Prior knowledge:
The chain is α/β, with parallel strands linked by helices.
Amino acid sequence: xxxxxxxxxxxxxxxxxxxxxxxxxxxxxxxxxxxxxxxxxxxxxxxxxxxxxxxxxxxxxxxxxxxxxxxxxxxxxxxxxxxxxxxxxxxxxxxxxxxxxxxxxxxxxxxxxxxxxxxxxxxxxxxxxxxxxxxxxxxxxxxxxxxxxxxxxxxxxxxxxxxxxxxxxxxxxxxxxxxxxxxxxxxxxxxxxxxxxxxxxxxxxxxxxxxxxxxxxxxxxxxxxxxxxxxxxxxxxxxxxxxxxxxxxxxxxxxxxxxxxxxxxxxxxxxxxxxxxxxxxxxxxxxxxxxxxxxxxxxxxxxxxxxxxxxxxxxxxxxxxxxxxxxxxxxxxxxxxxxxxxxxxxxxxxxxxxxxxxxxxxxxxxxxxxxxxxxxxxxxxxxxxxxxxxxxxxxxxxxxxxxxxxxxxxxxxxxxxxxxxxxxxxxxxxxxxxxxxxxxxxxxxxxxxxxxxxxxxxxxxxxxxxxxxxxxxxxxxxxxxxxxxxxxxxxxxxxxxxxxxxxxxxxxxxxxxxxxxxxxxxxxxxxxxxxxxxxxxxxxxxxxxxxxxxxxxxxxxxxxxxxxxxxxxxxxxxxxxxxxxxxxxxxxxxxxxxxxxxxxxxxxxxxxxxxxxxxxxxxxxxxxxxxxxxxxxxxxxxxxxxxxxxxxxxxxxxxxxxxxxxxxxxxxxxxxxxxxxxxxxxxxxxxxxxxxxxxxxxxxxxxxxxxxxxxxxxxxxxxxxxxxxxxxxxxxxxxxxxxxxxxxxxxxxxxxxxxxxxxxxxxxxxxxxxxxxxxxxxxxxxxxxxxxxxxxxxxxxxxxxxxxxxxxxxxxxxxxxxxxxxxxxxxxxxxxxxxxxxxxxxxxxxxxxxxxxxxxxxxxxxxxxxxxxxxx
Length: 872
């Protein structure tokens, strides 16, 4: 039925309505058309048409809308005694025609009588539509003038959230930003970092591109290319040809295997047209591509029985408006056929002609469809018409129920009904005033059991479904739900996808598709961005020493804790080995063994000297000094035991100080012995003044004085900055060196320097006495021993400084044992040889010594024998 006069132009404006107590307007997109708008002086409907095409799948949007009205009218608990009617117009997916269509929807005077309503009893008080964002904006520009509520069932453009510009616009689908966030989550889930983007060349496409680019940057993802699709309503053949060449070049050159596609069904038509018209080239360019489609791009809006095929999109992933099974809707579709429902229906006429090829008989101003009763919707392929309710259809269905529930609430709050024309206009104004307040706060459960309400931006919060598209060889299509993107669920459940439910295209050979600019960096490597390129294009560099990366594509390496170190692969931190010179290891065991054996040898020599203390050679060498020297050497050999084992506070305090004091005592004893030997022969000369220095206490005083000097240094060291144990975690990779910090390095070298000073003095004195009688070799032995002693400790310093850890300790132990063994061997081994093996040689050596001592005793002021002393 058509209100007002009709003409040839009316055939373009397909209209359908049913009367009711309240009339809901509808602007749907059943056909697409391209118009040539030459000027602005004639209506859009008078413009020339050069392309028109029916969209079979879009019929379901209307059928869901219609089914919802039938369901409301049959529900005795919802709007009792009141029926809903509707008035429907087709906007041909065109913005200018949408503007014109909306004007016609609000009037009833025909094409030339805008803003005039000849049927006030069936005035539209709310509009459901449109599908594309561009069309919804045009509807809102008109509807807002009348403060009329508009409920869109398929518009995603974020600009529609501007309530200053669109105060009466209500979105039955979620905001597009939520969908774009879902795309980002999908890319992150599959580690797709290098993606392409195809979007229409309009405001909606530009908004999608800019929003997606920002989120890609935030998550270190990159856009490989951006390809525009010319709008089919404005493209010329020349433009399409240029765009085809550009698309082929883009897809054939890119390394991106994942392509995000934004757009509506009209964009899909041009894109699939390019694929099919360049079949061989397009097929080669699209091999290995995974398509991620947005919810606006409905696959099934393309007629597979026409010129275009969807087989290239097999395995694609798509976001769809959330939908669920509505009880009774499929039965409603199954029972639908041209004989049962309005054979003269203008909407159904072209649909059945297109999909079932039914004959059409024209008679004057009417037409009649001649079809049988066998044309059922369920027999159509999925790419033409789906029996399951789509997201857009579900949104249109919910839009009707929202309006019905709002009207129901309004009728509960007032008992007034529209009965007369003047009063009807007043009531309609009251309806408009109450409608918006209640729409913003409406909340109810639909027949499918889902809660329907708007958020603060007047947008639905139903969320998105993620589907996997499976295209059969015969062109039929199945969309399997594999995940969700829901704003209602907790944060960790907002995005969910079942990987094992996905069917990929056959060219992936059962492997997960990859889309990266650079191959992944394995554990132990980090990314280094290539100069002048995006962050997704990088080189893999090994982690530096002491740092690890334990994940793929790490953007940096992490340093291990001080007590840990990186393993050889540098992908995990492992505990460092505690490192010190222990008794259990060969080096420590050998050092301890040498220390004990040499100390036993020293003890044995001391015992020999005590046993043979009355022999001339023992008596001739000042037994007290000899005993002091042997005891000092005994402790020198035991001193390394303080250096073996884990350093403790006590051992750190005793190590260097004990070593310094004991060696100072030993070298002081040698110095006293050397001086005594020299004086013994110098004092025998007639008129010598050195006899007074030959007293026994003089030698003891030398030992005591020299020892006290070292003792004072050690006391100052321990009092000012004593040694302490530390854990050195950085000197050696993979090891924690337990060692003694000397506290004051300067004091440590003072101890060594003082000991070296005593050794040098002793060496010089012994060197001056090297020409004593050959039968007495004491000075020569001391000279040689001091030479070796000094050599050992001179070599010790650079070697000590160039080593670390337990080897530093081993160097000091070796130096202690070597220098002590040198003293023991050079001074006492020859004497032990004479005492034990050659006792008869003592008399020869003793004669000269006795002559010297007798002269000393003769010239001495006090006889040493009377004081119980021994000869020198």
